[in-house]
Task: structure prediction
Amino acid sequence: MQLFYNHNDTICAVATPPGMGAIAVLRLSGKDAIGTIQKFIKNKNITDKPGYSAIFASLTNPETDEILDEVVITLFRAPASYTGEDVVEISCHGSIYIQQLLLQQFVKHGCRLAQPGEFTMRAFTHGKLDLSRAEAVADLISGENEKAHKAALGQMRGGVSKEIEILRQQLIDFAALIELELDFAEEDVEFANREHLYKLIDEIITKSEKLIDTFHYGNAIKNGIPTVIAGKPNAGKSTLLNVLLNEDRALVSDIAGTTRDTIEENIIIDGINFRLIDTAGIRQHAEAIEGMGIERTIEKISEASVVLYVFDINDTTPELLEKETSHLLLENKYIIWLANKCDACNDIETKLSAFKNYNNILPISSKTGEGIEQLKTALAAALPHKPNENDVVLTNARHVTSLQETIQCLQTVKAGFQNNISGELVAFDIREAIQHLGNITGAITSDDLLGSIFTRFCIGK
Amino acid sequence: MFKEYDIIVVGAGHAGCEAANAAAKMGSAVLLITMDMAKIAQMSCNPAMGGVAKGQIVREIDALGGLSGIVSDLSTIQFRMLNKSKGPAMWSPRSQNDRVLFALTWRKMLEKNVNVDFWQDSVQEILINDKAVVGVITSMGQTIYSKSVVLTNGTFLNGIIHVGEKQFGGGRMGEKASVGITEQLKSLGFESGRMKTGTPPRVDGRTLDYSKMEEQPGDENPGKFSYSKTPLIKDQRCCWITYTNEKVHKYLKEGFDQSPMYSGRIKGLGPRYCPSIEDKINRFAERERHQIFVEPEGWDTVEIYVNGFSTSLPEHIQLKALKAISGFENVKMFRPGYAIEYDFFPPTQLKPTLETHNITNLYFAGQINGTTGYEEAACQGLMAGINAHLKNKEKEPLVLNRSEAYVGVLIDDLVNKGTDEPYRMFTSRAEFRILLRQDNADLRLTDIGYRVGLAREDRLIRKQEKEANIYKIIDFIKKTSVSADSINPYLESVDSANINQQMKLISIATRPQVSLLGLEKMNSMLATFLSPFDEETKIAAEILIKYESYIEKEKDLAYKLLKFDALDIYDDFDYSLVQNLSSEAREKLIKQKPKTLGQASRISGVNPSDVSLLMVHLGK
Result:
């Protein structure tokens, strides 16, 4: 239960959209924002600089003196800033590793990671935005694609609230039965049937679990499905990405290993956002500088739900494919095997028949665009189990947490009954469960205030 | 004829007596005005104090330095700790009392207080100068001046008694109603409403056949309310339980067409949880019988209170139905039950000190605020008396919070949420009830009572000793280990798992089946250690050990709420500046003037988004 956000501390987050760009912007807001960053700068004093200054600086780890990154710092002095507080924006190199490293360091030295929407909430609190504008920002930020939009709308119109309110009402009725036994023990009232109570708890737990399951789908439609394009150097990964995107996003050359880092782009297929991540080629004996890229590729695969594995059908046998992918930790991934360069292959049928152990294999040519439509169909099929059209889908991680906490409380209630624990203690856990559900519907009288208005905001704006 | 008093208390019921005593003890010159000196501290309804949630209140009153606990102890004829089979937060002391002795004891205690003067009269008007109270005018035409006035009128304001189709003005059977105050307050801008309550018939105990009833004895080892050195009772009188039946219901129904409840003559709202017998058989038609508690009215009287049979049906119907109850075949009635309607003032017109918003230094306590119950009334009287005194002396007010006392829950509910029906305390109204136990009211409140100058030093010393001893016991149990051999036979006997190796006592003591008493019997080291401590201290220590995790969780929640209550809304805050407030919320906030954001959040009709907007506007 989050009664308040603390407004006295300094918060930080990545302000640019998730993923990789050339640069990323990290934002700090709060009275120690400038002071915190000063700790990372050795030979310059930024604390006396006026608002709107931009300063080039090296950030070093205050403990080890190791250089973290070279950055450009922009200062905003309260109240002339987005949040109305002192704000520091740091343009750092775009790698996610750098972003996370810097954030970790900031947290270590006195910042706190921002809650979703907290920058905007502070702006609102300091009179920088009125409520309707704040909500307009939320609308703009959320719902980047059709289905996410629909889910967001459903949530706003009370789909989730309604479903949860029903659970909550059942729990309140349940609590009332327990209270009856406590406050009217002396009177001649009939007490709740224990079997009935167990059944009710189980029902609520089952429903909560079902709702949580929809989150995986909901999460996919809201945040996109992380999809990695992997394969040996020069297998045609970047070309494939370009074909899918219809633009020259990735640097394409014939020299193996041209793509030294990961590149991320979004495509929308069947209303679903796929976050396509091109990776550096995977090669056993790479030159040193490329080694880092390969490690990151393996890391990327581990974070992805879908892997598009590209290989050259003309020079790859099933044995070779097996060998080159064996260390990639592909278990539990949804893999589409792409037999590329089929335009240069004379007898594709025979070649493919050798790969009969591989499910989900598609012949494509990223050069000619052959097989790309089939690939898109296969991608659309990669979506997590899809609830029925009219089912309520959870898309908010906070709601999932609340439901999980509800389930936990109810398990305690059940255990309490089994151990014959007194009603007022059981009632405590039921009340807590009701509170957790109330955090979602907002139908509570005493807590979780501004937070509930701003849940639809992303971190950093 | 009169000097100028610090405080005039109007009415000498449970609220009035506590108010007068508290203010006088703290040093105020108090005048207690009652219509009948012989009726001071009447138990108008059942001859009992305490019960679930109410017993906790009595102990809180006692810890703060009020007298209800002591007076109850000195007039107890039976004592029971209710809900003993449940957890310690539910344990609730309840006493049957000698009605006459109770009233007499209260009067004696007040008479001992030199700061309390008495005057038998009826107050007709409140003297007001520039929106502040300056005294009262009585029906005999006396003008008496004071710095503040506490109104505790009970059911007397325009009281109307109903028995069947008869109705007559009165504040209690045989006593006059009080007229004038409501009309004056309304002209001053107060809102008033009507409530209804009822009481059962009293019968002649010599005409009952107890052999046909179940006996309900008092506790084998009776406890008491007061933390001070009141004596434990040695003898007890028992009560009995019997039941209504289909025949009783049939006879009662015959009188329904003459019932003021169903003819629409009674307009006031009655309590849902304390229904009349006609309401019970009407609303719960499927029930074949209802429980009747047969309660003696005192040590030496044959008068019996027929608890559970509250009714306003005609007398002859009451008697006919009573005679159909098992054991009541030959019953003679002393007096019939009746319903009474009276004026109340929605308590949202009060500050948390029970002072009215409209008129400075005017306080309301008890049924005038829409509550029901002696305990509820008494604690309001106590708080009104304390706060009237503190304000006159220009000291900080005393407002108890919801995690501190049932008294705090009650007043917070009243002034913020108001009430549509007579408000009675339940444990479920207290979100921190695991903290608000009857065993620790002294630990929670003695310091406060002492600080404001009401609880005496001996109470404080006793409380400090108890607290120190509790922690000595807990400390010992945390540090001491026991061997498997010495403790396993006991564990087996209570069906708890054996231990394999030496273990700290604390990890055994927290098991649900294990009791400190059981451990004490098995372990001589523990027994020796515990021997100097009294039962009360040992129980308190055991509760803290056993329920630690729940207590800590509630403390955590309470702390969060407190933070919220610490956000002040300044007095002249302009709600019209806050755009987007719902109109209902705006209206209620302007009217009720909450002092803190926490209080605002508990006002009905103020929803979380309204509170968010307020919070934003207050710049918190």
